[in-house]
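ingest -> validate -> predict -> emit
validate: passed (alphabet ok, no gaps, 135 aa)
predict: started
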Amino acid sequence: MRGNTGEEVVTPISPTLQATLHLLPDHGAETVLASSLREAWTYNCVSPAWHRFKIKLDEEGLIAPGLTPKDLRQTVATTSYEAELGERPIVDLPGERAPSMARYYSRSANIAEKNREAMATMEKENERYATIVKP
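emit:
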């Protein structure tokens, strides 16, 4: 459940994540992020852990400075758009409620190739309509 939208987020585990999870020790909890008491992490647990993780990656030069979870949602939306998955995955994967947010998050997608294809189609249609046909 996504906190700020209340939307249920159901994300299948990718093969890459599955392989990584198999490397972790079993902690007996029903969730991946669990406390020493085997309870699911709250926001107050996740936020400082994210901050420490982000600082380490930033120091190693593995991420852009200032990376946020919102940036990761935008990456999912952009990748989904560029892979032509359609609007629903762009809305559903990051747990958005409205298609307008999906469009907002995917705004940086590389649409140049799609625009070239659209322009080539339009050019063909313009040529077809520009042909003079005498009755």
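Residues 74 and 105 are 5 Å apart (CA to CA).
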